[in-house]
């Protein structure tokens, strides 16, 4: 059993996390050192992984429970939090059994039922603490920091000066061997697909980040980044691929012509149910107007977290409701209108609990039932010959290369640094090799 020291000061922890290039691995990619450089009462470990078919966090917790809890304790120390909470689904029994060995004292569990979404910060903070983050705010506004499983494990590793060089992810869907893996950053999707035994369909495409919040992708050369959570392989003709690749113009046209204003999208929107001023059906109505009238209704999409419940689950007409919320945000941003005074907090909806979306029903609605199987963490090792390290795989400014072409590098060596005075994250080599190429977006390494 390794011994994890917690003798570092709050300042040391923040600096080691900054050096290690740790970002929010849950999707946002927000630099972790900035989150930790705060003072809060509560620290939540977001272990509520809920994207259908993706399960890498569950596997990480089973394998690295001690490291995760160590990372949580370090986060609590850095922020001065007096209480830590592991928010996890009840059904992750094996992970809970491992975590129970280390969760004690001022850390406890919050056990979730199997709903989607659970990991949105507004939702998790309310469920765990009963506190509502102000509209447009962050957990810090209510005395809290939220980090996900992999981020906490990375924080623990950073105390031993081990930087982020790999990312854990699941490869699920139409593959011969669904699995989870810890892949070197910059590994291509082509190599991940091969590791999973190849596709079981003729013309495979991918949902990068999951079926609900992920993006459609058909580029086998796309690289793994620090925020990669997983890929669902589906045939090109699958409705999810068609939906996620439809043009903006077609989406607007469909939204104008087919919405009957039934408002199911609003009635099931998790942020609406929390009492926020968000009404996706009103945004759908806005699409029929122009100018100020459109913007007036479009404001009711500003608090959308892009969970996808409105269009992939609620809407009986199968309309692109989420896309219209994203469009509404763009309208407001383009106009530069202030948002704060327009979005008020109402009360949590009395029917909230009964309107949450059970994941098995969601999987059925998405047409993913045939692929709803476990994707265990593989013991196979990925050793790509080449990796493409993106200079921007985090929130903030792209990292600046500090190596030159032809230079020999070792795993864990710093190859690109946070630009002076800006928000960002360091990037480290993920394989031993040499720098084959550098361009505006990436550093390529060859073994
Ligand atoms: S659920 Fe669909 S049809 Fe009903 S209001 Fe929303 S977008 Fe329109
Ligand atoms: S994607 Fe739809 S359901 Fe989800 S927060 Fe946005 S409007 Fe609400």
Structure description:
- With 447 residues, the protein is an alpha+beta fold.
- The chain has four domains: 10-158, 3-Layer(aba) Sandwich (Rossmann fold); 166-238 and 372-378, Ubiquitin-like (UB roll), CATH 3.10.20.600; 245-366, no CATH class; 385-447, Beta Barrel (OB fold (Dihydrolipoamide Acetyltransferase, E2P)).
- It is 32% helix and 18% strand.
- It contains 16 helices and 18 strands.
- It has helices spanning 10-19, 32-36, 56-79, 93-99, 121-129, 149-158, 189-195, 239-245, 248-258, 264-268, 270-273, 280-286, 291-298, 309-314, 321-335, 359-366, and strands at residues 42-47, 83-89, 107-112, 115-116, 144-148, 166-173, 179-184, 204-208, 215-217, 230-235, 357-358, 386-390, 400-401, 408-409, 414-417, 427-428, 433-438, 442-446.
- Helix 4 (93-99) links the parallel strand 2 (83-89) and strand 3.
- One iron/sulfur cluster (SF4) binds at residues 269, 271, 278, 280, 304-310, 321-322, 325.
Strand and helix map with partners:
Layout: H1 10-19, H2 32-36, E1 42-47, H3 56-79, E2 83-89, H4 93-99, E3 107-112, E4 115-116, H5 121-129, E5 144-148, H6 149-158, E6 166-173, E7 179-184, H7 189-195, E8 204-208, E9 215-217, E10 230-235, H8 239-245, H9 248-258, H10 264-268, H11 270-273, H12 280-286, H13 291-298, H14 309-314, H15 321-335, E11 357-358, H16 359-366, E12 386-390, E13 400-401, E14 408-409, E15 414-417, E16 427-428, E17 433-438, E18 442-446
Parallel strand pairs: 1-2, 1-5, 2-3, 6-10
Antiparallel strand pairs: 4-11, 6-7, 8-9, 8-10, 12-18, 13-15, 14-17, 15-16, 17-18
The structure holds iron/sulfur cluster (2 copies).
């Amino acid at each position: 059993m390794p011994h994890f020291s917690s003798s570092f000061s709050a300042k040391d922890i923040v600096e080691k996390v900054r050096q290690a290039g740790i970002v929010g691995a849950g999707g946002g990619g927000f630099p972790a050192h900035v989150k930790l450089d705060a003072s809060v009462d509560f620290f939540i470990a977001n272990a509520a992984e809920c994207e259908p078919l993706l399960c890498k966090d569950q596997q990480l917790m089973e394998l690295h429970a001690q490291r995760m809890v160590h990372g949580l304790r370090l986060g609590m120390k850095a922020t001065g939090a007096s209480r830590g909470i592991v928010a996890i689904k009840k059904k992750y029994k094996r992970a809970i059994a491992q975590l129970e060995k280390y969760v004690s004292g001022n850390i406890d569990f919050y056990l979730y039922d199997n709903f989607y979404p659970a990991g949105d910060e507004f939702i998790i903070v309310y469920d765990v603490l009963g506190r509502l983050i102000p509209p447009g705010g962050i957990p810090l506004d209510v005395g809290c920091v939220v980090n996900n499983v992999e981020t906490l494990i990375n924080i623990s590793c950073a105390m031993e000066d081990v930087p982020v060089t790999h990312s854990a992810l699941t490869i699920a869907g139409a593959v011969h061997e669904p699995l989870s893996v810890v892949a070197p950053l910059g590994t291509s999707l082509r190599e991940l697909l091969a590791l999973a035994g190849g596709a079981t369909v003729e013309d495979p495409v991918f949902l990068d980040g999951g079926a609900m919040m992920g993006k459609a992708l058909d580029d086998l050369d796309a690289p793994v980044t620090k925020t990669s959570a997983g890929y669902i392989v589906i045939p090109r003709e699958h409705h999810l691929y068609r939906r996620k690749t439809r043009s903006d113009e077609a989406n607007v046209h469909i939204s104008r012509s087919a919405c009957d204003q039934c408002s199911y999208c609003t009635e099931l929107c998790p942020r609406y149910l929390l009492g926020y001023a968000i009404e996706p059906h009103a945004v759908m109505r806005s699409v029929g107007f122009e100018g100020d009238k459109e913007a007036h209704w479009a404001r009711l999409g500003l608090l959308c977290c892009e969970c996808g419940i409105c269009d992939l689950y609620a809407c009986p007409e199968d309309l692109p409701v989420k896309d219209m919320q994203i469009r509404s945000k763009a309208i407001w941003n383009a106009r530069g209108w202030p948002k704060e005074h327009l979005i008020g907090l109402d009360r949590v909806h009395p029917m909230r609990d009964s309107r949450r979306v059970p994941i098995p029903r969601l999987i059925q609605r998405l047409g993913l039932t045939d692929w709803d199987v476990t994707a265990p963490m593989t013991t196979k090792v990925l050793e790509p010959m080449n990796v493409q390290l993106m200079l921007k795989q985090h929130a903030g400014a792209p990292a600046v290369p500090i190596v030159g072409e032809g230079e020999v590098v070792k795993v864990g060596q710093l190859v690109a640094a946070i630009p002076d005075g800006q928000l960002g994250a360091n990037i480290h080599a993920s394989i031993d090799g040499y720098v084959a190429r550098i361009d505006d977006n990436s550093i390529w390494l060859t073994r």
